[in-house]
Amino acid sequence: MERFAPILLIALAAGLAFALCLGLRPLMMRYALARPNARSSHRTPTPQGGGIAVLAGAFLALSLALALIPMEANAKQGLVLVMAAAALLALVGAWDDIRPLSPALRLPLQIFCVGIVVFYTAPEMRLLPDALPLWVERGLALIAGVWFVNLVNFIDGIDWITLAGLVPLTGALALAGSYGLTDPATGLLAAALFGGLLGFAPFNKPMARIFLGDVGALPLGLLGAYLLYRLAGTGALTAALILPLYHVMDSTITLFRRLARGEKVWQAHRSHFYQQATDNGFKVIEIVAQVALLNLCLIALAAVSIALPAFWAQLGCLLAALTLTGALLRRFSRKRVRP
């Protein structure tokens, strides 16, 4: 039973998410309709809130798994806490979808939710015990977690692009969990999210019938950060840095460019590399296909970094990942040349 648990979990989460998307879409049409504006990538009013279906499908399936699969009490408690923090962040996102929150309120709520994960889900875990004091490490983890929550939201600006990032990531971590490369709890959470995202995918394909919305993007960012944090805790820090590299580089470079131009970085915009690509003649499906292909390459490099722990192998994998990601960002920033 335990051997096939990830497959069953994926199938159940996908089925639940798909059914919930069907059932909730009329409600989203009525109360959570995203209307196009000057910064939008869509042209017709589209319901947002599909993240509710993704999270509900994943968490219902995961709760059943926790009830049936033997697991250490600490591992179960950690999963319950991270699900609670993600659910709370989903409420913040839902509020923001319906009635936009000010940054002064939104950011402290995000810090609180990420803090639950960083300080209480795995209090014994250390990433760099010989290099950093505990308080510095936890502080950096908190900042990184809040940034990851926001950057997933920033990247969620065209159909399927969040799936192009999170589906390979969760799929790879679910597979790693089934082979014992991560702890069982992390593997089950990754499998549940992988299934939930697959169930949502048909509704978000170009042209999307449903968007994730902040109710989905924010907690998915938190859960993605948690999965990477747990992976780094196994000693695979390089792999944890490589896997989300497209999302991290696109958002971080864009942020610093906007700061350098004196822009108000908390306001919506269309200057991300994937947004530039749409203006430069790339079709949405071309953009997400290239991001997904890059992420598959990043998974391969992350796997090599785990298999070869020598310093030079780690450095080589990281440099190769940075080079591939930088090349794609450069491609997106230039006009599409068609034959």
Q: Give the strand line-up of the largest sheet.
A: 1-2
State the shape: globular
Summed up, the helix count is 13
Helix/strand order: HEEHHHHHHHHHHHH
Strand-pairing-aware structural class: mainly alpha
Give the percentage of residues in beta strands: under 5%
Count of beta strands: 2
State the helical fraction.
Answer: over 70%
Provide key terms for this protein.
single chain, 339 residues, mainly alpha, two-stranded antiparallel sheet, 13 helices, 2 strands, globular
What would you say about this model in short?
Helices cover 73% and strands 1% of the residues.
Descriptive notes:
The protein has 339 residues and is an all-alpha fold. The protein has helices at residues 5-31, 50-68, 73-98, 103-120, 134-155, 161-178, 184-204, 214-233, 237-242, 245-260, 273-279, 284-307, 311-332, and strands at residues 33-34, 46-47. The termini are far apart. The mean pLDDT is 91.
